[in-house]
Amino acid sequence: MIGYFNYSEILTYLSAISAGVGIIVALQGNGHPYLGVFFLLFCGLCDAFDGKVARMKKDREAQEQKFGIQIDSLSDLVAFGVLPACIGDAMIRVCPTITEVPRLKKGDEFSFPFVVILFAILMLYILAALIRLAYFNVIEEERQNTEAGVRKSFVGLPVTTAALAFPTVLLLQYLIPADLTLLYFAVMLVMTVLFLAKIKVPKPGTRGMMVMVILGLIEFIFLIVGRNVLH
User: Fold this and answer.
1) How far apart are CA 46 and CA 8, in angstroms?
2) Contact 141/196 with Cβ under 8 angstroms?
3) Looking at residues 42-47, what average pLDDT do you find?
4) Cα–Cα dist 82/193, whole Å
């Protein structure tokens, strides 16, 4: 059997499975963006610790380390590239409002030209995530050939920030009686640009990572509470 199947890759595999389930849930029926976002949060939790778990295995051979880099990026593309896009697609088809509010629509849906624009943003977002991850793989392999240890910073916004950015928009939807679909796509467009921007982003240390995990857990809890209150 090809591949590596030990504890050093388990969180990456769990993230990929969670992303796949989230995609199916988000696209099921008329779309369920609020359910899909829970799987996005779980993907973010797995990503927060997958690198640390992998580095715990001290006897990893060179091929296994390269496999880890590749499989992590492929999983990230599905989890933080495709899944957020599918959630966005669900938001186009489902008006996620607390009360009836005006929407740029024709009948009960967005007008066709406007939908085309939104879908273009979805495709650009996925493409930007793909390019950013492929570029990272190349740069990371070159870095490992010249220096030891983990990297201290990234070039461009890491795609994993999607795990906090998009759930925040969905959380705001529970607090604001308005259709925030356009805000979701505005955030997606900004992130598309930042994925490819030549900006230096410091890599969070253990303390910073724990802060993000706590924020994710807070979002998870508030999203559940919001669903229970509204239903």
Assistant:
1) 12
2) no
3) 93
4) 16
Element (H, E) at 24: helix 10-27
Cross-strand partners of 109 = 106
Banded model confidence at residue 31, pLDDT cuts 50, 70, 90: low
- Please give, one letter per residue, the 3-state secondary structure of the chain: CCCCCCCCCHHHHHHHHHHHHHHHHHHCCCCCHHHHHHHHHHHHHHHHHHHHHHHCCCCCCHHHHHHHHHHHHHHHHHHHHHHHHHHHHHHHHCCCCCCCCCCCCECCECCHHHHHHHHHHHHHHHHHHHHHHHHHHHHHHHHHHHCCCCCCEEECCCHHHHHHHHHHHHHHHHHCCCCCHHHHHHHHHHHHHHHHCCCEEECCCHHHHHHHHHHHHHHHHHHHHHHHHHC
Prediction pTM value? 0.87
Tens of pLDDT, residue by residue over 63-122, are 888 888 889 999 999 999 999 999 999 888 776 544 444 444 434 567 778 889 999 999
C-beta separation of 18 from 79 below 8 A = yes
What per-residue confidence (pLDDT) applies to 151? 73
> Distances from the Cα of 124 to the Cαs of 14, 84, 156, 159, 218, in angstroms?
26, 12, 16, 13, 30
Cα separation, 1 vs 33, whole angstroms: 36
Cβ–Cβ < 8 Å for 8, 67:
no
